[in-house]
Amino acid sequence: MNAILPGNIYTPMRVTSVDASPDPKGLHEWLERTQHLGRSGTIEEAGQTCLFLASEQASFITGVELILSGGAELGYGPKIPAGR
């Protein structure tokens, strides 16, 4: 069995949650800064990861936990300076 472990993916549920916070703009910017890539992942990127694991290119991959996080787990907290 393989598992895809999505992290900070920009989904409609995330938009709803952020919009319900006391400071939506600030929370959105903080979430983006927690990513080494400076942005959240997209639904399309998550889908492409699923397609890869279902493809012939991944036919010999077994028992993997594929972290889809943009590097957020590499030291939690802001990684991109504010205002960038």
Would you kindly provide a written description of the structure presented here, covering whatever features stand out?
With 84 residues, this protein is an alpha/beta fold. It has one domain. It contains 3 helices and 4 strands; from the N terminus they run E-E-H-H-E-H-E. The chain has helices at 12-19, 24-33, 43-54, and strands spanning 3-6, 9-10, 41-42, 65-68. The strands form 2 sheets. Strands 1-4 form a two-stranded parallel ribbon. The mean pLDDT is 89.
Summarize the structure.
The protein has 84 residues and is α/β, with parallel strands linked by helices. It contains 3 helices and 4 strands, in the order ββααβαβ.
State the end-to-end distance: 40 Å
| Proportion of residues in extended strands | 5-15%
Structural class: alpha/beta
Q: How many domains? A: 1
Main pleated-sheet profile: 2 strands, parallel
